[in-house]
UniProtKB/TrEMBL annotation:
SUPFAM superfamilies recorded: Lysozyme-like
Name used for this protein in its record: Transglycosylase SLT domain-containing protein
Domain Transglycosylase SLT, first and last residues per copy: 71-168
CDD domains assigned: LT-like
UniProt-annotated stretches for the region Disordered: 32-57
InterPro entries: Lysozyme-like_dom_sf (IPR023346), Transglycosylase_SLT_dom_1 (IPR008258)
Bias (Pro residues): 41-54
A Pfam short name: SLT
Length: 238
């Protein structure tokens, strides 16, 4: 009733007056000149607006990429961390097998024909062969540069000869330096949700357990379990 009286008192400018004293404000209440003991009628609560969709709203571990299972398989075949291979492919070709550079590099891993032939792969338009050629070269670089990940990535881009010419340092080529930075950033982001290679002795190497070590561990476990069972008191019913 008091609210109606105030509206009538405002005269022809009732709507403006009501806005001035906050009677039609749905979510907030402005006291204005009203008495402190006057409360507004509760307004219906509205749900907050949904944020606009964006690429960052997708969980990285749920991203699906072309050739994903094949990439994972080839990485493990060459004892590489799958995350590293994914990072390089993302930077090299954005997972496009038909990608080609003006220097002659082709495919998912942008392999040069001479490099592919060096490791026994000539049909670089074939995704499995392209992946294996690139993985074989990366595996060789990691072994050659003492598992220095950044040097190996730089050599993949500029060639191992360039890394050697500059004293086993990343060559001062802007393209190569940017390439190393981008691959390492992508690798650290872990976009594919693979577990970090905390058991790997070297970065970029996929952790696998030696079969003989696994057998020895199993034998020790069984021996310990047998000893515990023999040492425990017999169980009697009743």
């Amino acid at each position: 009733m008091l609210g109606m009286g105030l509206l009538l008192a405002c005269g022809p400018g009732a709507q403006v007056c009501a806005q001035g004293i906050g009677l039609d404000a749905p979510l907030t209440w402005t006291r204005g000149d009203l008495e402190s003991d006057i409360s507004p009628e509760p307004a219906p609560l509205m749900p907050p607006p949904s944020p606009p969709p964006s690429a960052t709203s997708v969980a990285p571990s749920r991203l699906i990429v072309p050739y994903g299972p094949l990439i994972d398989s080839v990485a493990r075949e060459y004892h590489l961390d799958p995350r590293l291979l994914h990072a390089m492919i993302h930077v090299e070709s954005r997972y496009q097998q038909d990608a080609a550079s003006n220097k002659g590099a082709v495919g998912l891993m942008q392999v040069m024909p001479l490099t592919g032939a060096r490791f026994g792969y000539t049909n670089l338009s074939n995704a499995p062969d392209n992946l294996r050629a690139g993985a074989a070269y990366l595996r060789w670089l990691l072994d050659h540069f003492d598992h220095n990940l950044e040097l190996s990535i730089a050599a993949y881009n500029a060639g191992e000869g360039a890394v050697k010419r500059y004293g086993r340092e990343i060559p001062p080529y802007p393209e190569t330096q940017a390439y190393v930075t981008r691959v390492m950033a992508r690798y650290r982001e872990n976009p594919m949700g693979f577990s970090a290679p905390d058991r790997a002795r070297q970065p970029g190497v996929h952790a696998t357990e030696n079969p003989s070590t696994a057998l020895r561990s199993a034998a020790v476990f069984l021996h310990t379990l047998g000893s515990l069972l023999l040492a425990s008191p017999e169980h009697k019913d009743g």
